[in-house]
Amino acid sequence: MITERIHAGLKRAKDDGKTFGRPRVSPELEQQVRAELSKGAGIIKVAKMVGVGNGTVQRIKDEMARGTVA
Questions:
Q1: Residue ranges per domain, the chain?
Q2: Residue 37 and residue 14: Cα distance in Å, rounded?
Q3: pLDDT tens digits, 39-61
Q4: At residue 69, does pLDDT exceed 70?
Q5: What sign does the CA torsion over 35, 69, 15, 53 have?
Q6: pLDDT value, residue 46
């Protein structure tokens, strides 16, 4: 019953337009990451140069490979 209430609350929040998770980095930073990745730099190197986390760079790289932009 607790699980049902949790899921119902999450669904209601999502229906109201609430976004979940951490805020995304700015479009300018994403563009800078894309530029460095296209030059052939590695994930860790790009993360240190731009000042974002490795996971953020990995997500952007995956989006580039799939051809999607969120």
A1: 22-70
A2: 33
A3: 999 999 999 999 999 999 999 99
A4: no
A5: negative
A6: 95
- 49 C-beta neighbours (distance < 10 Å), count: 13
52 touches 25 (CB < 8 A): yes
Return left, alpha or beta for 40; rule: phi > 0 is left, psi -120 to 50 is alpha, else beta: left
CATH of domain 22-70: 1.10.10
Tokens matching residue 32: 């800078």
**For residue 70, what pLDDT is reported?**
58
- For the stretch 26-34, contacts whose Cβ atoms lie closer than 8 Å and that sit 24 or more positions apart, written own/partner, are 30/60, 33/57, 33/60, 34/60, 34/64
